[in-house]
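Chapter summary example: a protein plus glutamic acid.
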Amino acid sequence: MKLRKVTAASAAVLALAVTATACGSDDKDDNGSSSSSGGGNKKISIGIKFDQPGIGQKTPDGYTGFDVDVATYVAKELGYSEDQIQWKEAKSPDRETMLQRGDVDFIAASYSITDERAAKVDFAGPYLLAHQDVLVRADEDSIKAPKDLNSKKLCSVTGSTSAQNVKDKLAPKAQLQQYQTYSQCLNGLQSGAIDALTTDDSILAGYASQANFKGKFKLGGFKMTNENYGIGVKKGSDLKDKINTALEKMVSDKSWDKAVKDNFGPAGYKNEPAPKIGDVVK
Ligand code: GLU
């Protein structure tokens, strides 16, 4: 997979940043975000999902998922080891606000790059291309195409592209219930209170493959949208170019492929090749 060369502009930004650091400027950036410096105690604060297996999950043994691996790689390239990372939960409706307030330095949380969001925050990436799909009970046979959702009870998450797409175009007549997290929709799907959960296939595949759900759910396979995952940073932050450089390296040294295999392999989730950094697939 060939990536576009780092542009002269971003290389210049990087060079400047390196010089600034060498001259003693700290890594507590000028953009008000929450990284702190100070000898060995410097920390970086990263927003991820806590309840999305395969993507971002808090477990008794630590944090796992594709976004966690990407964020860890990026943090390392920025000069932070794993024990210098403070993980914070970034639920879908909270992401822009967390960045604007400076609660976190960056967010890697199944965060689609959209024009509306890009008016409020900046995005590095994209680093993954997913597609909106539905998760239904294994015995469901009345949802054969996206239009069938119009007569159904659908669940999704407030502030997500998934919920917005349902209302705007995919199934405007569906009865849509919106929660704070996708995992909250799963109980309803199991009990029959809702007919389908809709969000990215990358997330749904992770749920379907959980041991306690094995054989209970299936994906529709509809590929209803393109979801280009980006890493969100505060608007104007110089982290954007540095993160893009790190992402390009992650793809070229094959760490990206390994992270895909490690995190999506168990769920049998097949996604596209690495997206070209800077190219959002519409
Ligand atoms: N990728 C979509 C979004 O950013 C859905 C997944 C999510 O809510 O995290 O809204």
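Key point: Residues 1-33 have pLDDT under 50 and may be disordered.
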